[in-house]
Amino acid sequence: MTDDDAVFRALADGSRRLLLDRLRARDGQTLGQLCLGLDMSRQAVAKHLAVLEEANLVAWQRQGREKLHFINPVPIHQIARRWITQFDLPRLDALAALKDRLEGPENDEQGKDNAP
Amino acid sequence: MTDDDAVFRALADGSRRLLLDRLRARDGQTLGQLCLGLDMSRQAVAKHLAVLEEANLVAWQRQGREKLHFINPVPIHQIARRWITQFDLPRLDALAALKDRLEGPENDEQGKDNAP
DNA sequence: TTAATACGCAACCAAATGGTTGCCTGTCAA
DNA sequence: TTGACAGGCAACCATTTGGTTGCGTATTAA
């Protein structure tokens, strides 16, 4: 329905997030390359890529008989922005601290649960 | 599998995102209240809430015969942070600009598609 | 030209998902 | 105490999802 919906759905699957990770590590890979360590059939990977394409998270380009896949960070960017602004507006300044930490030496953790 | 997985899955459904929106608008609502305008059976909403609870996105508290639901922003926070840092590290400074815009008057849009 | 490579298409399958209905339990108020 | 109200549980159903296999097509290399 929403345009985000496709993105959320695409991100809902671990295999697809893994594919995004791999593309982030090295952009412009072919289907075959993306299949390599994955314990999944080529067609399964192709289907996942189709979902990612439909969500506009991955774009591709023909090169001869190869299909090179490229990651598109914009939708994630938008969603992250939206959900940060909608959910965490009061804590947005925490991101400044995050930025500081990232530019600094090490990352530390912070609290997790607060179930009543 | 991952701890994020439950969160991503939970966020994948529009109805559940809507429930989170409603809780964000007013925290501590009962099942019945959350059902009100939703064109879904009470049990369907209860199931969605169960998914959100399992992802630790919603916590609840008994009060007599009522069950008050509370939103927990931490998991989204964590995911947003992770995905921003993993995907957008080079653009992290854009968040500073975002913060400026949010503290300023109006929000403008930016580019969408870039399929080849 | 032939064969190997890289991918697409379609059918099929099991399991998960989102939803329903029916009925049961606990709590509050008359 | 007796309803009415808020919610829980379980069975059931249709569709979607994630995956497979089999076969077909285009491109490259021998």
Explain this structure.
Chains A, B: This is DNA-binding transcriptional ArsR family regulator. 2 copies of one chain form a homodimer. Helix content of chain A is 56%, strand content 10%. Chain A is globular. Chain A has 116 residues and is mainly alpha-helical. The first copy, chain A, has a two-stranded antiparallel sheet. Chain A is built from 6 helices and 2 strands, in the order H-H-H-H-E-E-H-H. In chain A, strand 1 (58-63) and strand 2 (66-71) form a beta hairpin. Chains A and B meet through helix 1, helix 2, strand 1, helix 5 and helix 6 of A and helix 1, helix 2, strand 1, helix 5 and helix 6 of B. The first copy, chain A, binds a DNA duplex (30 and 30 nucleotides) through helix 4.
What's the arrangement of secondary structure elements?
The structure is a homodimer of 116-residue chains.
Chain A lengths: L2 H9 L2 H12 L5 H5 L6 H13 L3 E6 L2 E6 L2 H15 L4 H11 L13
The structure holds a DNA duplex (30 and 30 nucleotides).
Under the CATH scheme, which class of the domain at 3-72 in chain A? Mainly Alpha
* SS-based class of chain A: mainly alpha
Mean pLDDT over the residues of chain A? 80
The radius of gyration over CA of chain A amounts to 17 Å
- Inertia-based shape of chain A: globular
Q: What is the number of beta strands of chain A?
A: 2
Largest interface: A-B, 46 and 46 residues
How much beta of chain A, percentage-wise? 5-15%
User: Segments of chain A where pLDDT lies below 50 for 5+ residues?
Assistant: 104-116
Spatial order of the strands forming the largest sheet of chain A: 1-2
Helix content of chain A: 55-70%
Question: Architecture of the domain at 3-72 in chain A in CATH?
Answer: Orthogonal Bundle
